Sequence to fold (755 residues):
Amino acid sequence: MAFDIEMIKKVYERMPARVEAARKLVGRPLTLTEKILYSHLWDGNPATVFERGKSYVDFAPDRVAMQDATAQMALLQFMQAGRPKVAVPSTVHCDHLITAKVGSSEDLHTAEVSNKEVYDFLSSVSNKYGIGFWKPGAGIIHQVVLENYAFPGGMMIGTDSHTVNAGGLGMIAIGVGGADACDVMAGLPWELKFPKLIGVKLTGKLSGWTAPKDVILKVAGILTVKGGTGCIVEYFGEGVTSMSCTGKGTIANMGAEIGATTSTFGYDESMERYLRSTDRNEVADLANGIKQHLTADAEVYANPEKYFDQLIEINLDELEPHLNGPFTPDLATPISKIKEEAEKNGWPTKIEVGLIGSCTNSSYEDISRAASLAKQVANKNLKTKAEFTITPGSELVRYTIERDGFLETFDQIGAKVFANACGPCIGMWARVGAEKAEKNTIVHSFNRNFAKRADGNPNTFAFVGSPELVTALAIAGDLTFNPATDYLINEKGEKVKLDAPTGDELPVKGFAVEDAGYQAPAADGSGVTVAVSPTSDRLQLLDPFAAWEGTDLKGLKLLIKAKGKCTTDHISMAGPWLKYRGHLDNISNNMLIGAVNFFNEKTDNVKNQLTGEYGPVPATQRAYKAAGIGSIVVGDENYGEGSSREHAAMEPRHLGVRVVLTKSFARIHETNLKKQGMLGVTFANPADYDKIQENDVIDIIGLTEFAPGKQLTVVLHHADGSTEQFAVNHTYNEQQIEWFKAGGALNIIRKQVVN
Ligand code: SF4
Fold:
């Protein structure tokens, strides 16, 4: 059995008392989100009222999930913690590193060969530390989590932004960086700013061509890509209860596209049906036992405007199918307006490829409804005009849809079935001719459609729609086709209309699979050796960072004074560097190569103060390191915004940068710096940024009395012999100061384990 029933029992046993305590404490009815959050407090029973959008709270998530690209550094760090086993149930999923090219078996084989060392590492480290391992081909992390691990009222984190998908089964599921995952696996609390709440009330019922995907496409149009930031979205209303659990998963999945922390739904019969059909009767029975706690208090949904910070209402009876795009998932156009918009904006209307599947939309229901359209191609003497591909979300779904004849139906319209993996959704699509960068249109049922996301071609106009609409559009080959109203001309020259899609929420004969691709960990992993070749260029075991030397930091060379925006992408670029996510020294060759040097306005070109020559940032820093000289990075406002990528903090630490001094930090990056034992400080007076000169040698004074709330002093030694000094602020608390002194949080955890 893959899921941990004992853990779920514990969560459900403690939930009623904690919900009751929270209700008393806040003195009003509770939303579902609040019930789940308050029952997952690190300190146990609720004792403080948290302020939405303000309070930082320590939580105790129930699970951790990691995908193969991000799991590498998370687990290399976890190994540093010295724990014999993960503290909470955790899983690894091999889905991101498989290129879609020829078709599922060949592509899978190619990936197994080219990523062998990564897979061997992930498999052995999972085996050793009690982590469930899902092999390449088993499926996409979020689909596999929904099928096996998600449970109503639970809380999980995952090292992927679409971890939020599990909200479809009533969880609070949140995407995080590897450092956070490492902490939770090591038994530490996980901190989150208590979110604001957006309520979405769905009235009416989906019918005809409209699908759950259209709900979130509409919401994205309303809220835009930033509208959910810092918020949890809670859906409710009659429209929710009439929708399938996997449909809810699709909506929750794309909450990431509106920047939401996560989305969730109250427990209902669709969830119970899904739990039972995926072999989790015990979970369904337990959930039924505490159902009233797995949804909001009745008063909340009766008067939602009183309990949510923002309220949106959508009538599903009036909702039209949508296409969102191109180039951004919040540009929402109802299908009846596409023709007009395409003409106005010059979008290419010939559809080259329709792609269905991915973690967003590859449920049995999705596939069966898309297949009902594919079937009509032969029945109505049509010919599919565009290419058509399917990326099943899991082997469980793939096996079942093959058994039920859907894959054969798709085969008859010339479809290509890719491996159960991310493939075209994450740019791992070796699309023939993409390198020509021709302007073209594709439609897909994935979630993101930024330029280059699918095939690397910046001129591919990608539109996001439901799998049903994507299939209909691929058949028509025309972006302006509205299947609800328009006719097609078939091979006999007759006018025909597609019937609205039909399908089954769940397989009538039940799900089936021969080998789901799961590898359980060893009961006792102490004898298992983790496979990392010392000559590998993709993986490298980590060495603990050195502890603070106990003195002020003096004689630091200015490495770079970054100008303007400096996101985690500028600090640690993605793209070709993804390959080195498990090799700290190699990936450090991208350190700050995207940052703009204040003094010459160039990227990756800074002065080496030892030679006076200009060169790349990483090489310059390596020269300082080789000479045993520390350095400092100076940044502008909101330094480190973007992702929670811990590499952006680990690389400077690894290469010997001692201090990052900025006008302000993005909070997650600031915490990541602290965790790695780095000193991150901010100008008390932001105008002091202007005092930093290119040839400065810099001291940080006051570290021997480093204390919460106490300023430090920066002394600048300019090249002309003059000096200036000013105060800098920091946000280190007692514990974080200990991290700094020990050389990093993991050094402390390891000590605790040894002691
Ligand atoms: Fe991310 Fe796409 Fe993979 Fe889903 S299918 S996990 S969105 S890359």
In short: The pocket of iron/sulfur cluster is lined by residues 95, 140-142, 160, 162, 358-359, 422, 425-426, 446-447 (CB under 6 Å). The mean pLDDT is 96.
